[in-house]
Specification:
The protein has 86 residues and is mainly alpha-helical. It has one domain: Orthogonal Bundle (434 Repressor (Amino-terminal Domain)), CATH 1.10.260.40. The chain is 63% helix and 7% strand. It contains 5 helices and 2 strands; from the N terminus they run E-E-H-H-H-H-H. Strand 1 and strand 2 (12-14) form a beta hairpin. The chain is globular, with a radius of gyration of 12 Å.
Length: 86
């Protein structure tokens, strides 16, 4: 999967699809369903499902809530996405 360049600098960022795939894998590894994750993060179910299909990006607050739900840091979640993109 591809990476994109952030608007702030030239550091490559994982694509929306890579991040969605990393989140889905992390949830599966943790034994947390998408429905349960949407409840824990207070992201409406349909919105959460759309974002997991890479239909729209997760914002920073949502990534923080997801990382908290998974018991990892946002940077660890992004690192997983970078591995998916490689």
């Amino acid at each position: 999967m591809a990476t994109t360049t952030s608007e702030v600098g030239t550091t490559p960022q994982p694509s929306r699809a890579a991040l969605a795939a990393a989140i889905t894998t992390a949830l599966t590894d943790a034994g947390i369903s998408r429905l349960e994750a949407s409840k824990r993060t207070h992201i409406p179910r349909e919105t959460f499902y759309r974002k997991c299909r890479a239909g729209s990006p997760f914002d920073s607050d949502e990534l923080a809530a997801l990382a908290d739900t998974l018991g990892i840091t946002v940077s660890a979640l992004v690192a997983r996405a970078e591995q998916v993109a490689a």
